[in-house]
Amino acid sequence: MKIGVWKVAMANPSDVSELAGLIDKGAVNPAEIVALIGKTEGNGGANDFTRGYATLCYQLLIGRHLGLPQEEVGKRIAFVWSGGTEGVLSPHATIFTRSSEGFADGTLRLAMGMAISRKIAPEEVGTVAQVKEVAATVRRALAEAAIADGADVHYVQVKGPLLTPASISDADARGAVTVTRDPNGSKPYARGAMALGVALALGEVSEDQITADVIARDMALFTSVASTSAGGELSDCEVLLFGNSPSSASDFRIGHGILKDAIDADGVRAALQSAGLVFEGTPNAEQAGRIVSVFAKAEASPTGRIRGRRNTMLSDADINYERHARAAVGAVIASITLDPAIFVSGGTEHQCGPGEAPIAAIVRI
Amino acid sequence: MKIGVWKVAMANPSDVSELAGLIDKGAVNPAEIVALIGKTEGNGGANDFTRGYATLCYQLLIGRHLGLPQEEVGKRIAFVWSGGTEGVLSPHATIFTRSSEGFADGTLRLAMGMAISRKIAPEEVGTVAQVKEVAATVRRALAEAAIADGADVHYVQVKGPLLTPASISDADARGAVTVTRDPNGSKPYARGAMALGVALALGEVSEDQITADVIARDMALFTSVASTSAGGELSDCEVLLFGNSPSSASDFRIGHGILKDAIDADGVRAALQSAGLVFEGTPNAEQAGRIVSVFAKAEASPTGRIRGRRNTMLSDADINYERHARAAVGAVIASITLDPAIFVSGGTEHQCGPGEAPIAAIVRI
Amino acid sequence: MKIGVWKVAMANPSDVSELAGLIDKGAVNPAEIVALIGKTEGNGGANDFTRGYATLCYQLLIGRHLGLPQEEVGKRIAFVWSGGTEGVLSPHATIFTRSSEGFADGTLRLAMGMAISRKIAPEEVGTVAQVKEVAATVRRALAEAAIADGADVHYVQVKGPLLTPASISDADARGAVTVTRDPNGSKPYARGAMALGVALALGEVSEDQITADVIARDMALFTSVASTSAGGELSDCEVLLFGNSPSSASDFRIGHGILKDAIDADGVRAALQSAGLVFEGTPNAEQAGRIVSVFAKAEASPTGRIRGRRNTMLSDADINYERHARAAVGAVIASITLDPAIFVSGGTEHQCGPGEAPIAAIVRI
Amino acid sequence: MKIGVWKVAMANPSDVSELAGLIDKGAVNPAEIVALIGKTEGNGGANDFTRGYATLCYQLLIGRHLGLPQEEVGKRIAFVWSGGTEGVLSPHATIFTRSSEGFADGTLRLAMGMAISRKIAPEEVGTVAQVKEVAATVRRALAEAAIADGADVHYVQVKGPLLTPASISDADARGAVTVTRDPNGSKPYARGAMALGVALALGEVSEDQITADVIARDMALFTSVASTSAGGELSDCEVLLFGNSPSSASDFRIGHGILKDAIDADGVRAALQSAGLVFEGTPNAEQAGRIVSVFAKAEASPTGRIRGRRNTMLSDADINYERHARAAVGAVIASITLDPAIFVSGGTEHQCGPGEAPIAAIVRI
């Protein structure tokens, strides 16, 4: 297995020209594209349509090259977008290809596994049932990635369903009870259950710790490597698992760290060093040039304070707290990686401890 | 001369309790307060009333202690507020006291001078006349600060008038011509002329370089130590000049650096080191504890790019670019100083080179 | 009893010049001012400090005239501000005076009663206990207004406490249980309980209908004349009750109507006609000139639809739905009253039926 | 000529299901579609990508039916979108078809003409050259619509280029001078020149009145029936002209009115009555049901006041003034037409007198 990693800039949400250029010059084989993780310049909220727009445009491009209708492209390639490029963050996509070329030399190199769960019923969203189903799915992705040791997993991106007015009605019609009746309020449950599913699969929590009353509540249970998101358009859970495997022939290595808070520069450095980048303080230009992609979560401090100082993220009625958090975290990361094209998204239930956030980095070997 | 520096946190724009506590316990003598520079949690725009609210509340507090009506307090103390605590920035005020106590030991220590210009007529705003008047005012402040060498000046905060519909009408009535008829459009001229006034006084530009057509246009002319702001409520220019003087008995030293862009962590370090803080990479807790206050400007990149990557600050119709810039710069600084109570404000015409911004730091000796 | 009604425009939240002018020329006796209801130009959210700023400035003005410290003014005069002047809405205050001058001629004229509840404990907020306490308070205000018939009540403004992190901690410390642990989520409970208290006092619901599980849930129970708001700074409930009484010598009459949705022009007309204004279609200039003040609530449709058409208020992550709703309702009202200085605020739990909102109007006789 | 008018609701910017349904059941012949004018739920600013997204989705749908690539659909059908559904406004599109079926009975019925100008060079944007070119284009559209009398024209939608950094560079390279160097600042010039082009073609201004110094400056010159918009993606000017013609066999009639300000309900009524709808005060359900589409402009008052009351549209740093204006105007119109699916867009240079705005209505006969 060889994983290719290509970061392309975007001049707007419909700009697919950089990928088109890579395909045209033969650098990227469109048939080998398996996933895309990117940032668009929307507001990141419920009315952010830049994600759907970008997905459509990439699907049309790839579909043209593969002779497939756009819908079919959606079935073979995973698209993960986060809206909101606050502060210095720059709209871009990281495109992953997978091929069987190359010989593995037995050193740990970037590997990747993908798996999709069965459909999650509305009454299962945010429950123990979802936790277990996600755990099973993560285990399949782990096998596909040829990663034997959970400690070699550094980034698990999961997206799955939240509750919508329609899905709540569906549950009602069947006499089933949902975890909440508030669509927006279902997000923490959905993201939390998926994160706990990762934690369970990787042995970060044990099965007997997972009960209905811990999901989105007992934040002492968590995974350090998951990034989960919930959307109304999904009914199953898609898992993208990244780690290092001795069976991989990739030119990259992945690592991860933990951001203790929104200004934790040491956490950023730890992620880069975990991926094998050797540097002190700030990477020099050559070192920084080897950092291909960074994936982090950003969140408002649950205490409303950072290093003892109050911030106003949670009381600001004009700008959503996630936008404040992404702006801050993105700038701190970029001040070290020297590249503002970073993936930073919001919502950290059971993803690292309270107030903390995960960060993963892919580095060219 | 001994300058005291007190940073107080604020739970909201009307919260003066920390200063009240310092006065009550005798740490701060209200009669010695000469200036306040702070951040409030408004939007930083034309309809940000948190600045006026905070000013009123501090004036009422100090007035009660001095037995003075609120208006009189406004005449003896300079208030400089910047609205907008984006990202991790924390609402606070730095309060400066000045007394004649203590013996100077001849080492360079924090000194401060204040001076006010004559009234600037509407037709002078943004013109060579204003540049020269500000330069003269800065020279008076320099003398008051007992600073002989311009190289010992590290931070000059100037605020003065912009054009308003009323002041434009006033000029019209007298047949005088203003630099623009657009009130909002007068800000760059006003801020720029004040910055060039500082540059002229400190010898960073020469008098023959200052012509009408360079103001807010030829950005190759600039000062590296000014931070200027323009407001509709002013008719004269207030100068707060900070530097180090051998005649000072203060417990602090000030330094400055230049932020090459919004993620220039090395620029932050240079400012701290310029103020005498000795550290490598990131200050440790003891070193960080000696950083009392940081004052920086933040600005969108004029090219729309940072380190080659496009950002969306200038095209965002929901969040003003100054808010994006402050969020990013504030987080980068705080990731090094480990304190989010930092003064970061917007608008950098002739304040450092294009795309750059000044940063000053006061450090306890 | 004679109630005076004075509407003053405000150039900014600290502008008290119009009231100052009315006092200076003897039109308003500052000792007779009992209440102020106004709109400020903030964002209407948790970080809208324009309300506190305006309160402080009016208290300072009135305090100067009465020789009272500002805090004492706050105890004798009720201040009700709603932040957010979206669309055409214009910042202003309606000031109410009360005196014993004049003879009542037995016709129904504007009367007013004020009363304050005992302190509401955190564990009582949003509960039946609060409903009953508000009902008792409304009954006292009714008596003070000399209104015998509940049908003569047209506008009851109530403000009271919501839950804050501090008040929840206080309840915890005493082992008491609050209705929710989410401060923001306590608003509907608090507003709803106060509205049901009004409904109970006026006989719009019966005591046996009021149980814990109906508050903020069973929207078939409601009052048609209350406007309630909840704020973190309060611990008791303040009631301002307006109606018509034969014992009043006022020059005004009040009436009310119901807005079926955000574009219900007929509901606006009904309120004006209920107050005694005789007109067809749109008032002419003379008729419009007799409309002194209008007080309305605005709310997003719970279905997300108005007249069968979807709107985007509830999914907009950039602009809060209350701001959309106030902009729309304010413009519709102003298109009929021909005066954009209208009081429109948000949050309608148990205030008219689901999707509906109350509107009251004071008209000069 | 027979013009069909179909209003379709949209559940999101990519929702083309209502048009798909009309095509599937044979009500709309996709080959006859000539234009679409609609509102999307973006922010209406430079970073509003909902317009491009909706265009792409409609082009893909129609292209599938016509067997044409998406780009070709763009060449045969005019797409005009305005972003921003503030207040009650509802996302929708009005689709126009044109066929030769039916016999004209000689009464005035809805007619439509379309024409495209030659490319406008960057140095011509906002100049007399553009005014004249637009005028010539409008005359061609007039002929195509078979309208002999300019008084029968009620709505002329024009969109054309603004200046972009790229087009300014292009002019620079050729030594040509543009009307401004500020891309955003070019909008008033571009919109103004197109509006004056309509005024010139329809005889509302004379050719000798059109000089360089009146464009975007002398607002006493204007057209009462144009709605113009400028976008960076265009290089020519597209004219959609609507009026009534005795040669038309359409089932609709169009009329127009003038909104004196944002709360001018009488202006709304005048537009409906001009289109032939007979009613007093507010249309009843049957009358309202005959109103098919309404097209209006909304703008902040240049004085900052409406009916003598200050509004805060122009000083609000959180919400753009165009969003405030659309929310207000849309609600006032909907309160009369009883349908919130209305086209309201911003920017009125030379479109009606200062502070005024055009409104057109299409009514089923």
From TrEMBL, chains A, B, C, D:
<dbReference type="GO" id="GO:0016812">
    <property type="term" value="F:hydrolase activity, acting on carbon-nitrogen (but not peptide) bonds, in cyclic amides"/>
</dbReference>
<feature type="binding site">
    <location>
        <position position="326"/>
    </location>
    <ligand>
        <name>substrate</name>
    </ligand>
</feature>
<feature type="binding site">
    <location>
        <begin position="229"/>
        <end position="230"/>
    </location>
    <ligand>
        <name>substrate</name>
    </ligand>
</feature>
<feature type="active site" description="Nucleophile">
    <location>
        <position position="229"/>
    </location>
</feature>
<comment type="function">
    <text>Cyclic amide hydrolase of unknown substrate specificity. Catalyzes the hydrolytic ring-opening of a cyclic amide. Does not act on cyanuric acid nor barbituric acid.</text>
</comment>
<dbReference type="InterPro" id="IPR043008">
    <property type="entry name" value="AtzD/Barbiturase_RUA"/>
</dbReference>
<feature type="binding site">
    <location>
        <position position="191"/>
    </location>
    <ligand>
        <name>substrate</name>
    </ligand>
</feature>
<comment type="similarity">
    <text>Belongs to the cyclic amide hydrolase (CyAH) family.</text>
</comment>
<dbReference type="InterPro" id="IPR043007">
    <property type="entry name" value="AtzD/Barbiturase_RUC"/>
</dbReference>
<dbReference type="InterPro" id="IPR043006">
    <property type="entry name" value="AtzD/Barbiturase_RUB"/>
</dbReference>
<protein>
    <recommendedName>
        <fullName>Cyclic amide hydrolase</fullName>
        <ecNumber>3.5.2.-</ecNumber>
    </recommendedName>
</protein>
<keyword id="KW-0378">Hydrolase</keyword>
<dbReference type="Pfam" id="PF09663">
    <property type="entry name" value="Amido_AtzD_TrzD"/>
</dbReference>
<feature type="region of interest" description="RU A">
    <location>
        <begin position="1"/>
        <end position="101"/>
    </location>
</feature>
<feature type="active site">
    <location>
        <position position="159"/>
    </location>
</feature>
<feature type="binding site">
    <location>
        <begin position="345"/>
        <end position="346"/>
    </location>
    <ligand>
        <name>substrate</name>
    </ligand>
</feature>
<feature type="region of interest" description="RU B">
    <location>
        <begin position="109"/>
        <end position="246"/>
    </location>
</feature>
<dbReference type="InterPro" id="IPR014086">
    <property type="entry name" value="AtzD/Barbiturase"/>
</dbReference>
<feature type="binding site">
    <location>
        <position position="51"/>
    </location>
    <ligand>
        <name>substrate</name>
    </ligand>
</feature>
<feature type="binding site">
    <location>
        <begin position="82"/>
        <end position="83"/>
    </location>
    <ligand>
        <name>substrate</name>
    </ligand>
</feature>
<feature type="region of interest" description="RU C">
    <location>
        <begin position="252"/>
        <end position="365"/>
    </location>
</feature>
<comment type="subunit">
    <text>Homotetramer.</text>
</comment>
